[in-house]
UniProtKB/TrEMBL annotation:
InterPro entries: aa-tRNA-synth_II, aa-tRNA-synth_II/BPL/LPL, HisRS-like_core
Highest rank taxon of the organism: Eukaryota
Stated name of the protein: Aminoacyl-transfer RNA synthetases class-II family profile domain-containing protein
Biological process, per Gene Ontology: histidyl-tRNA aminoacylation; mitochondrial translation
One GO molecular-function entry: RNA binding
Family in the record: Belongs to the class-II aminoacyl-tRNA synthetase family.
Keyword flag Nucleotide-binding: no
Gene Ontology CC terms, in alphabetical order: cytosol; mitochondrion
Organism for this UniProt entry: Bambusicola thoracicus
């Protein structure tokens, strides 16, 4: 690689910067010669190392055209964040291992772990959320509206053709503190809508979830509380895997009964604006902080409690 660097320097030195007259451009013949020498130098360096020059698995280089597009995209996103009064922060790429571990359930195995010369146990950040929580606690900050755009790292099995990388950017916007109910949620939705509209990507759909609905679904499907975190981790893969593969992981790797997995499957595959989501209001009534008035109780089967099958009750009343 030393030869490669020398060639690049030589190409610059041969065309010195002069204020008195324009710098002549190298001839096509010279450019072709330099290009061939650079390729040969790169090939020699790779041969000396016994391998082909390439980026690590799950990573990639970004060319000038791609960087220009990224800068335009980031500029649009940051401008929107600033319009909404957010301030930028930055946190180290490295965190203490103890800060990150046990924060991501089963996905903790995807954290890159390191050890420095002094023996300190470190890790590459997995996302921007846990470092933000550490930042708030360490600096005793109770109210902040912040954004953070930075690279994160996952020791995952990459599928680059499907957009799964080991190194990629995350773009976070968070409102931390005490505010009127639903106001921060509404602002976050507005920000997403503004950004996607300004980027002119065409029609888009914003999906909103609530962890309480997910916990309620698990409750009526008979999932024990001890398995909630690991089931959430598996269910989160539905954006990347078909339901059949997710179900196989639930049963084969997580030890869930096939019957419980099938009940979950009926819920997660519900779609539609009307008939497809009719069971959900009843589901909400059957979940914490509500109590189920069905007889037998909803834990005996979601078909009885929610869908009214097998002659069971179809509605529940709110508990006191």
């Amino acid at each position: 690689m030393a030869m490669l660097r020398c060639l690049c320097v030589a190409a610059v030195v041969r065309c010195p910067l002069r204020l008195s007259r324009p710098c002549p451009l190298p001839s096509p013949l010279l450019l072709g010669l330099l290009s061939r020498q650079v390729r040969e130098a790169a090939g020699s360096a790779g041969a000396e190392c016994g391998s082909v020059l390439k980026t690590p698995k799950g990573t990639r280089d970004h060319h000038p055209a791609q960087m220009a597009l990224r800068e335009r995209l980031f500029g649009t996103v940051v401008a929107c964040f600033k319009r909404h009064g957010a301030a930028a922060i930055d946190t180290p790429l490295l965190e203490l291992r103890e800060t990150l571990m046990e924060k991501y359930g089963d996905n903790s195995k995807l954290i890159y772990e390191l050890q420095d010369q002094g023996g300190e146990l470190l890790a590459l950040r997995y996302d921007l959320t846990v470092p933000f929580a550490r930042y708030l606690a360490m600096n005793k900050i109770t109210n902040i509206k912040r954004y953070h755009i930075a690279k994160v790292y996952r020791r995952d099995n990459p599928a680059m053709t499907r957009g799964r990388y080991r190194e990629f950017y995350q773009c976070d916007f968070d409102i931390a503190g005490e505010y009127d109910p639903m106001i921060p949620d509404a602002e976050c939705l507005k920000i997403v809508h503004e950004i996607l509209s300004e980027l002119q990507i065409g029609d888009f759909l914003i999906k909103v979830n609530d962890r309480r609905i997910l916990n309620g679904m698990f409750a009526v499907c008979g999932i024990p509380e001890s398995k909630l975190v690991t089931m959430c981790s598996t269910l989160d893969k539905l954006d990347k895997m078909p339901w059949e593969e997710v179900r196989s992981e639930m049963v084969g790797e997580k030890g869930l009964s096939p019957e419980a997995a099938d009940r979950i499957g009926e819920y997660v595959q519900l779609h539609g604006e009307h008939g497809g989501i009719q069971p959900l209001p009843s589901l909400l009534l059957c979940c914490t902080p509500y109590e189920c008035s069905c007889s037998p109780p909803c834990q005996a089967g979601w078909e009885r409690c929610v869908l009214g099958r097998d002659g069971g009750a179809q509605s529940s009343t709110r508990g006191n």
